[in-house]
Amino acid sequence: MDLESRLRLAGDVPAVEEFLALTAGRLHRRDQDPDGLFWAEVQPTNGERAAFVARIEWTVYPHRPPSLVFVESVGTPTTGEPRVWPVAEGYRCGPNDVCKPFTAEGQQLHPEWGTGPHAWRSTGNPFLYVVENIQGDIDRVDGRRAG
User: For residues 16 and 134, is the Cβ–Cβ distance under 8 A?
Assistant: First the structure.
């Protein structure tokens, strides 16, 4: 990750941490992780449901959307295990991707999203935008899991 991306990302992280704290979640960044890799604990508003752990990896910030997958816990590899994925539309544990306009995987699978209403927007705080979308999608399915 280039220096400009690291600096811009560092400037946007506090708002993401604040948002997650308000929703009983938490953002993790481990020293051994490459630049641009974060782990977000996303707690559904239904407090009876366990938090999800989203692995969010940026390559160029804010100009490209991040890769997004769900894992069992912070630092664990992607397995495609259904029980760690939300049942939200576009969240696919089978191919291990989130097919949404705010993810690298979604933009790659749908080149038509490169323009128009689904185009990636690099203005504002894109990291916060991604985390708010994840939270909203999880809450829309009441925090239910795929497996």
Answer: no
